[in-house]
Design goal:
heterodimer, A: 325 residues, alpha/beta, two-stranded parallel ribbon, 9 helices, 36% helix, B: 197 residues, mainly alpha, Recoverin, domain 1, 2 domains, two-stranded antiparallel ribbon, 11 helices, 3 strands, lipid metabolism (chain A), transferase (chain A), Phospholipid/glycerol acyltransferase domain-containing protein (chain A), LPCAT1-like (chain A)
């Protein structure tokens, strides 16, 4: 549920609207308002926790603001628990409403998709074979990864290691050069996002020159929450949550292949593919880096803001003669 | 979710208390902002630290981010509770919301034009002596322009700004002078956030 309504406005309109070329004591108000708007509600941090549902799906884990609505609802919830834990778990299977199949990735190509959970891999892998590229994990997921390595050629790396990233790019290049090899599956966001929007696609996969097969994956939140919030839940807890949901219902769209154009740079290409996936899956597009889940935003973004402000309040390179009003 | 310290909002009395304290804020606005407060509270101890604010990317890239974060914290404190959080945000409620207020004869609401101006003034006035000195103005200017303007230029802008605003000749800008300078500015629009009901 939204907390504030942001106005469609910009620094240009708010600050330079009336007084381009001058500094005004009131300029501080633009930054103060923008700052407090971000405190009340921001576009980024909400993507790293589960989507808040408008109507409750009877799973207590999706009810962040629990307040007792009625005893009837509570009764239904209790029955729901009994069904989920006692009836469904023993007979567990996923259902996925799938699957628009004409554009399934071919050998030698790179399959890119938005990322919500390791389930994405299971779902795609149940419909085709891939070589995987991903972050190495410990624990239960680590064991699963190790056993996968036995059967196929996968590339595992440590995302914080710069050296690893270069190595990964090299391995990907080598892999797709060999047309007999399985298509590679990559999640360019680099981390799990909560399936309401698609965040920045890292350019690595888009500069190696292969054919990109975009795939959009959208989970239906009414039945269960597929998002793996790895900072909050371990793989064990997450698996348990998944198994005791109503179901995981998922739509997968295989989209027509795309290639980088002559004049296009990798970043532009990545954004193009991202837009296509988001549009198909019904998710919004964010320019922000999913890596902000774990690390601080770069200083250079602040510097951009400062530069922009400067340009608005200077004229011919000089700040105006301070006509305050 | 055991182990969390109560912040006084979980109970019905807590919410009633908030509603009284912030006249004409709706019940659902409080619960939504409370939900936001707890999602920022990574330490789960019922208060926010400066780090909790800095984790918001849009705030981290705001040139005045640190000053704005400071505005939430009471003097000398390192933690802010939910009441303090609401209190700061309350300055940005639109002024028209006050028409629905039941308490017409009470103290001036936090979101009055004067209090909005005061909020902006305090962003400049770091030492809280009710004056914006040349140094204080320079500091804020430097935060807003980054490295893109030389010291000399910035100095002359600060001088001119003070010259134009200063009426009592003390080479600083008092709150009254600040208000006078900005009398034609649409403070209500610039310092209001539309909180949804």
């Amino acid at each position: 549920m939204r907390i504030i309504q942001r106005e469609e406005t910009s620094m240009e309109k708010e600050i330079a609207g009336q007084h381009r070329g001058y500094f005004s004591l009131a300029d501080i108000m633009y930054f103060a308002k923008k700052g407090c708007e971000a405190v009340a509600e921001d576009e980024v941090t909400q993507r790293f926790t589960s989507e808040e549902l408008l109507s409750w799906n009877l799973l207590s884990r999706t009810n962040a603001n629990f307040h007792r609505v009625s005893w009837q609802l509570t009764a239904v919830w209790v029955i729901g628990i009994l069904i989920r834990y006692c009836l469904l778990v023993p007979f567990r299977n996923y259902s996925h409403g799938c699957c628009y199949r004409e554009n399934r990735p071919q050998k030698g190509g790179i399959c890119v998709a938005n990322h919500t959970s390791p389930l994405d891999v299971l779902i795609l892998a149940s419909d085709g074979c891939y070589s995987l590229v991903g972050q190495v994990h410990g624990g239960l997921l680590g064991l699963i990864q190790k056993s996968c390595m036995q059967t196929s050629q996968h590339v595992l790396f440590e995302r914080s290691e710069m050296k690893d990233r270069h190595l990964v790019r090299k391995r990907i290049r080598e892999h797709i050069a060999d047309k007999a090899k399985l298509p590679i599956l990559i999640f360019p966001e680099g981390t799990c996002i909560n399936n309401t929007s698609v965040m920045m696609f890292k350019k690595g996969s888009f500069e190696v020159g292969g054919i990109i097969h975009p795939v959009a994956i959208k989970y239906d939140p009414r039945f269960g929450d597929a998002f793996w919030n790895s900072t909050k839940y371990s793989m064990m807890t997450y698996s348990f949550n998944v198994l005791t949901s109503w179901a995981i219902v998922c739509n997968v769209w295989y989209l027509p292949p795309m290639v980088k154009e002559e004049e296009e740079d990798a970043v532009h290409f990545a954004n193009r593919v991202k837009a296509v996936i988001a549009a198909r899956g019904g998710m919004s597009v964010l320019p922000w880096d999913g890596g902000l889940k774990r690390k601080k935003v770069k200083e250079s973004f602040k510097e951009e803001q400062q530069k922009k402000y400067c340009q608005l309040v200077t004229e011919n390179g000089f700040m105006g003669n301070g006509n305050v009003y | 979710m055991g182990g969390k310290k109560p912040t006084g909002v979980e109970t019905k009395e807590g919410i009633t208390d908030m509603l009284f304290f912030f006249s004409s804020v709706s019940h659902s606005q409080i619960t939504r902002l409370y939900s936001r407060f707890t999602s920022l509270d990574k330490g789960e101890n019922g208060t926010l630290s400066r780090e909790d604010f800095q984790r918001i990317p849009e705030l981290a890239i705001n040139p005045l981010g640190d000053r704005i974060i400071n505005a939430f914290f009471p003097e000398g404190e390192d933690q802010v509770n939910f009441r303090g959080f609401m209190r700061t945000l309350a300055h940005f409620r639109p002024i028209e919301d006050n028409e629905k207020s039941k308490d017409q004869n009470g103290p001036e609401p936090l979101n009055s034009r004067s209090n909005k101006l005061h909020f902006a003034f305090r962003l400049y006035d770091l030492d809280k002596d009710d004056k914006i000195s040349r140094d204080e103005l320079l500091q804020v200017l430097r935060m807003m322009v980054g490295v893109n303007i030389s010291d000399e230029q910035l100095g002359s802008i600060a001088d001119r700004t003070i010259q134009e605003a200063d009426q009592d000749g003390d080479c600083a800008i008092s709150f009254a002078e600040f208000v006078k300078v900005l009398e034609k500015v649409d403070v209500e629009q610039k310092m209001s956030i539309r909180f949804l009901h």
